[in-house]
Amino acid sequence: MTNEFIYSRVDHTLLAATATKEDIEKLCKEAVEYKTASVCIPPCYVKYARKLFSKLNICTVIGFPLGYDTSSVKQVAAAAAVMDKANELDMVINITDVKNKKFDTIQEEISSIKQIAGTKLLKVIIETCYLTDDEKITLCRVVTDAGADYIKTSTGFGSAGATLADVELFKKHIGENVKIKAAGGIRTRENMVAFINAGADRLGTSSAVKILSGEEAGGY
């Protein structure tokens, strides 16, 4: 598997609370240079990045990282991101709804955000580190039925990140039109290759350039 192919599956990510404009610009320049699938940046920087990089595929996050904003707040955030010309939205589900077994509510929320996103990609973060396998399987159905484009393992801010077991579980239970994004803790080239081979169509990582250039990786 070539580095070029791996880059084409990477959402080049910077979601640190301390990210500066200079950091975002550097990330975007790297995305252009290495032809990554997208950049994933905080909502407050979408408009700024779009002005600098008119053709760059820009992803941003909704309800990030804890997911417990109300649906109406997430809807406003999604609409703002679309207005600022984001191409992709990565939303976090309300994990308290999972624990309260309110799966219909989760599906309704995802559907409402997808309606706002329209043809733009919607990735749904379920934060696997807090879930049982039964909850993950149920959420595969919920994400599929809600019409989302991707199911995503993690925010990278939880107690653990992506695992191969979760990607393999997703692959067995998602609908045919839903793809998989693995994120959080992907810090070696071997990890990247393994997640792609397991069925992940996208990888969320802040370390892709360091990993694939042979430098020590860290962070998201």
Which superfamily, in CATH terms, is the homologous superfamily? Answer: Aldolase class I
What general outline do the C-alpha atoms trace? globular
CATH hierarchy class name: Alpha Beta
Q: How do the strands of the widest beta sheet line up side by side?
A: 1-2-3-4-5-6-7-8
Secondary-structure content class: alpha/beta
Count of individual beta strands: 8
Q: How many alpha or pi helices?
A: 10
Major β-sheet annotation? 8 strands, parallel, barrel
Number of domains: 1
How far apart, in Å, are the first and last alpha carbons? Answer: 22 Å
SSE succession: HEHEHEHEHHEHEHEHEH
Mean pLDDT: 96
Helix share, percent: 40-55%
Oligomerization state of this entry?
single chain
- What is the fold-level CATH name, i.e. the topology? TIM Barrel
Rg value: 16 Å
What report would you give on this structure?
By secondary structure, this protein is of the alpha/beta class. The protein has a single domain (3-212), classed as Aldolase class I (TIM Barrel, Alpha-Beta Barrel). Helices cover 45% and strands 16% of the residues. Strands 1-2-3-4-5-6-7-8 form an eight-stranded parallel barrel, surrounded by seven helices. Helix 7 (133-146) links the parallel strand 5 (121-125) and strand 6 (150-152). The longest helix is centred in the middle third of the chain and has 15 residues, at 103-117. The radius of gyration is 16 Å and the shape is globular. The two termini are 22 Å apart. The model has no long low-confidence stretch (mean pLDDT 96).
